[in-house]
Write a structure and sequence with these properties.
The complex is a heterodimer. By secondary structure, chain A is mainly beta. Chain A has strands at residues 4-7, 10-13, 19-25, 31-37, 43-49, 54-56, 64-70, 73-78, 87-94, 105-106, 110-114. In chain B, strands 2, 4, 5, 9, 10 and 11 form a six-stranded mixed sheet that branches. A five-stranded antiparallel sheet of chain B has the order 1-3-8-7-6, with no helix packed on it. Chain B contains no helices and eleven strands. In chain B, strand 6 (56-58) and strand 7 form a beta hairpin. The chains are: A mainly beta, B mainly beta. Chains A and B meet through strand 4, strand 5, strand 9 and strand 10 of A and strand 4, strand 5, strand 9 and strand 10 of B.
Chain lengths: 115, 113
């Protein structure tokens, strides 16, 4: 059973389109995250979210918005896609603040290509 | 704020040689430190972590790391490199459970026959 899953694995789209990436975790974790990995493989946090708080990296354009229908899902919606949005997007989850450790489990990634 | 610096974007070792990947951190509070590995076109897999307690941490695939507060370092080592160790390695830091990780820029490990 996959702990953190993402769909789709690959996403190719045109500039200006709106797209969503889905993430699901079956670990019962409290906190979920979205990270962006650029072409130089640098990983940067975009959002972290638990059932109490959404923390947004201030550098993330407001075209990006996380949507959480329930504790096990954190989807990423992107409006008006731009060429610079091309990257690999990783979803992750962790047990949250109530535990004594902070191991994050990562999904397989979604490679977004904007043409 | 917490940050990490990985020295050397590319490291090349011979098969059977010692692997040493360097990571220095900056943190205003006691850090949680991690090493993740990423194989080509795959997600990130946790190698090992330091939260509290013993400063020498053993991980999967024969890797270990030592937390040295005086040197603000958390270097990753493996006594004998294997071809299958070729991958991208990321050091990461966070200040507490439930918070996002701040990653280093990664070190690409090449293992030659």
């Amino acid at each position: 059973d996959t702990a953190v899953s993402q769909t789709p694995k690959y996403l190719v789209t045109q500039m200006g389109n709106d797209k969503s990436i889905k993430c699901e975790q079956n670990l019962g974790h409290d906190t979920m995250y979205w990270y962006k990995q650029d072409s130089k493989k640098f990983l940067k946090i975009m959002f972290s979210y638990n059932n109490k708080e959404l923390i947004i990296n201030e550098t993330v354009p407001n075209r990006f918005s996380p949507k959480s229908p329930d504790k096990a899902h954190l989807n990423l919606h992107i409006n008006s896609l731009e060429l610079g949005d091309s990257a690999v997007y990783f979803c992750a989850s962790s047990p949250g603040e109530s535990r004594n450790y902070n191991e994050q489990f990562f999904g397989p990634g979604t490679r977004l290509t904007v043409l | 704020a917490q940050s990490v610096t990985q020295l050397g974007s590319h490291v090349s070792v011979s098969e059977g040689a010692l692997v040493l990947l360097r990571c220095n951190y900056s943190s205003s509070v006691p850090p949680y430190l991690f090493w993740y590995v990423q194989y080509p076109n795959q997600g990130l897999q946790l190698l090992l972590k330091y939260t509290t307690g013993a400063t020498l941490v053993k991980g999967i695939n024969g890797f270990e790391a030592e937390f040295k507060k005086s040197e603000t370092s958390f270097h990753l080592t493996k006594p004998s490199a294997h071809m299958s160790d070729a991958a991208e390695y990321f050091c990461a830091v966070t200040r507490r459970s439930g918070y996002a990780l701040n990653f280093g820029k990664g070190t690409s490990l090449l293992v030659t026959p």
